[in-house]
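Researcher: Sequence recovery benchmark, item below. Answer with residues only.
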């Protein structure tokens, strides 16, 4: 599920959707970014 959801959630700022009210989601995103082999969306 992480692999399927992360790209959409990580692009939420592009849609002017703030995740500030969701600290657990922000924390989850940071953990995903620390995984070996993570490549940022260009």
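Model:
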């Amino acid at each position: 599920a992480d692999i399927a959801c992360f790209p959409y959630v990580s692009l939420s700022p592009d849609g002017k959707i703030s995740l500030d009210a969701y600290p657990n989601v922000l924390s989850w995103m940071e953990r995903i970014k620390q995984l070996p082999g993570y490549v940022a969306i260009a």
